[in-house]
Amino acid sequence: MTRRDFSINDVHLALDGELAADDRAEFERWLDAHPDMKAVSARFERDRTALAAALAPVVQEPVPTRLTHLASGKARPRRLPSLLRNVAAAVVIFVAGGVAGYFAATLGPFAGKQAADQFAEKAIDAYVVYAADPAHAVEVGASDQHYLEGWLSKRTGLKLVVPDLSAEGFELLGGRILPVGKNAAALLVYRDKAGNQLSIYMTGDGETKAKGIYEPADGGPTAIYWLDDDYGCAIVGSMPREQLREVARKAWRQMVESGVTGKGTS
Amino acid sequence: MDEYRRQAIIDEIPRLRRYARALLRDRDAADDLVQDCLERALSRIESWTTGDSPRRWLFTIMHHLFVDQLRRAKRHVQAVAMMPETIDALASPPPQTDKLASAEVLAALQQIGPERRAALVLVAVEGFSYADAANVLGIPAGTLMSRIARGREELRSILDDVSRRKMIKVVEK
Question: B1-92 sits in which CATH class?
Answer without folding.
Answer: mainly alpha
